[in-house]
Amino acid sequence: MRRSIVAAAAVGVTALALSGCAATAQPGGEGPQTIKLAVQSDPGTLNPITNATNASESVSTFGYESLLFYPTGAEPKGLLADSWEATTTTVQFTLKDGILCVDGEPLTATDVKSTFEYAAADETGSPYKGVYFPAEGLTIEADDAANTVTFTSANAQSFLAETIGALPIVCASGLADPSVLDTELHGTGAYSLEDSSPGQSYTFALRDDYAWGVDDTTSKTEGLPATVEVSIIESDSTAANLLQTGEANIAEVGGSERDRLGSTDFATELEVPLRPGLIFFNQAEGRVGHDLAVREALAQAVDREAVGPVASAGRGEQITTLVSEFGAACTTMDSSSAIPSYDVEAAAAALDEAGWVEGADGIRAKDGKPLSILMLYPASESQGVTAAIELLQTEFAKIGVDAKPTPSAAYTDVIFSGGDWDIVWAPIFTSLPSDWAGILGGDFPPNGGNWTYNANQEYFDLVGEAQALAGADSCDAWQAAQDSLFSNLEVLPVYSSTSTFYGVGVEFGMSKSILAPTTIRVTE
């Protein structure tokens, strides 16, 4: 997927390492089972509070758990929480009895409180601040004797329990020296990290004292693998090969490589909309995207019906909402009427009116400044996305915009630090509409996480109205807020591509968009 020689070499080494011995999970196997899992990207660091990437979650989920579990298309279940009571301003979680950290120490209500305090600290720089919990006006009370943690928000939240319940909880051993979290796991998850070779592999062993999983899952649950060997396989083609040869038990495959897997008999085959193609605009002072007319012109120049199928390798559909059917609430919102239509002539006319004059070289300029944009996108994206970015470059050239594709292996660092970019193709997946109030709100970098420099007051007002309503009653209000995001071009939704998770000799499920370790079962 990455196009550099170094990355390609790393993929080759990993593939050879994985294929050195066959996967040991076999139907009807007896005794402790080992399964092999291929993931598409290396997390880099394992800190579950500072690294919010899909790659990080895919690996750290073996060692960390949150208060709630989010099964696909269903209401959340208790994970670390045994029960909870919530309003729009207060939620009290009662923890399950007997939860043990990986070091054998009991998890306390104070540990939960301390995790949120660590995540909220400015020096931590957690991207979850303002997303999984309010950035301001949140008070937390921990009662270790009663095993309860109470969160009170100064501002109303439609999904206070569902939002707070998603943050990974770190045990006291990790909070005592957070620097260890980059390379070690200090949580309550069912697995301990036994070995790691960053960039290549991670090996997890089932804990023998795990007894509080969802649906009464414990270390003794039949079919739960004793060892999970995770390898970094960036190539869809390699992942498909390993599935076909039985050298991987679970792998995610995207694009057209799935076509050749259609005749294979898999124990599990789950297509998920994990790669939403979303274009965000840098609206900071001094950037061309600060001008709404420019954002509108760029949006009108995007032929979503052409770009989308390229990005998704022909598997996907146009996005009309920021919350997919895999979300936890408001999954039927539809803001298609608020998305600008494809109209190259209207786009050019808008730029003319805004004073951007086309030069002899076909590139527009205003006050001596050329209309040039830097198009940022993840370097680890698929070949389809890379081709879509190149198509966008061609489309923008038709209206006199000089667009420069710029792949970045650390694109989140660029956008959160206020770095150099004008538009970014970012595959951000959320399960609640309220998540976007945190993602596109707050202070501008470097003081806050409002990385698009969104100043749409209409959106903020509509968010306030939505947050005052609880649960499903708030969905219409959240759609109105989403309409404002689309019409004011804080974000342009393009296409939702899909990936497919395959299981050879194993069954499994998801929590949100992440493979849930305690759902894995070696099949008989």
UniProtKB/TrEMBL annotation:
The family assignment reads:
Belongs to the bacterial solute-binding protein 5 family.
Where would one find the signal peptide in this protein?
1-25
Recite the UniProt keywords alphabetically.
Answer: Signal, Transport
Per the record's keyword annotation, is Transport included, yes or no? yes
Name-wise, this protein is: Peptide/nickel transport system substrate-binding protein
Q: Which residues form the Solute-binding protein family domain?
A: 75-438
UniProt xrefs under PANTHER family: OLIGOPEPTIDE-BINDING PROTEIN APPA, PERIPLASMIC BINDING COMPONENT OF ABC TRANSPORTER
